[in-house]
Amino acid sequence: MTDGPIIERIEFIAFEISIENMSSDPAGFGVSYTPGKTGTHLRFGVRIYTDTGVMGEYVPGRSRVRPIMAAAEALASRLVGKPALARTQHYNTMRRLTKHIGEVGIGAIDIALWDLAGKQYGASVSQILGGYRKRLPAYASTLGGDEEANGLSSPEAYADFAEQCYEMGYRAYKMHGWHEGNVARETALLETVAKRVGDKMKIMYDASNHLATLADAIEIGRVCDACGLYWYEDPYGDGGISIRGHQSLKSFVKTPVLITEHIRNLETTVDMLVAGATDFARADPDYDGGITACYKLANAAEGLGIDTEVHSCGPAMRQLMAACRNSNFYEVNLVHPQMSNAWSLPYYENGYHDQLDCIEPDGTVGVPSLPGMGVEYDWDAIEASSIETRVVK
Fold first, then answer.
1. Strand ranges for 64-134 from DSSP E
2. Is the pTM for the entire model greater than 0.70?
3. pLDDT recorded at residue 1
4. Neighbours of 251 (CB within 10 A)
5. Domains in the chain, please, with CATH?
6. By C-alpha distance, which of 26, 69, 72 is closest to 44?
7. Is the pLDDT reported for residue 267 higher than 70?
8. I need a labelling partner for 361 at 20 to 30 A (CA). Which of 5, 195, 239, 386 fits?
9. Chain mean pLDDT for the chain
10. Closest-CA residue to 163 (of 204, 193, 142)
11. Separation of alpha carbons 132 and 176, rounded Å
């Protein structure tokens, strides 16, 4: 018995996409609705080549390219010459290498290795993991608030958008509010949307850590209680990482709290769950160690009787959620009534996308069934818009 394909080289390619009515900060950390402007967004992809010709590939759906691609490139040299199917071994190696600098570089490589394994075995990643389901209930997750006349500039605009999403088939809707964290404005947002659609949609609220203090978070949490929200996410300016702070918050607020989006490893998230600081786990394959770490987290949470909500959208997120019993909704983010979804890569083939209209009338999205991540990329288009390629061999 052989070790299977051997990794010969790993290629990283940075490229730009253009999105109408969008602007982004130079570092790529966020996007905003800007009518009339065509903005560019930096992305990257990874391809893992082997001696047998089977290839693993992945293009993360979000930016932050400079730090993440550099971190992944630094890890890649330790995988060249190693068996491509030894995913758990590689995951542990990469974790040891990142113990002083953070683990964000692991995700794209791990996901590409899972894509490679699926192609080697002729099965999708969700099938390899157990194949729990083929369709995923989805929620519309809004872009943050803006000040544009036809944008998400008022509580009423959010409520109008919620009704639009409902008509499309969505039965759950999450609001990202305004960056200022103004308690009165956020309260009006929650109350207006709940009054308009709360009797027919599950409503979530993500404060994105914009509320300045624990006291503000408690005040908004009580509004969430009154409005019957499904969950209350990343409430205040601790960054979503304080066990003690969220234990205190939960003692005052009844609405289930969802944090751990900003914690980058399995063990600390499990500590949060055991300590009762959150009512859900949060898993993001791009940022949290790929499929390997996120599936470990989902299983650990299941053992504690806790659900794991998968963060953001993309083929890796669909494959992961499809293998998990204890996950409720697929996040179609970050959507806006006047702008296409910046997190949906325009270079998928075979019809895959994560735009607002990716759902079926029953409010679900499908799980791609091709081997690996289930999608194919238009690498000719990616290479045509590339600005940098790096090869580790």
1. none
2. yes
3. 45
4. 9
5. 7-122+374-392 (3.30.390.10), 128-366 (3.20.20.120)
6. 69
7. yes
8. 195
9. 96
10. 193
11. 30
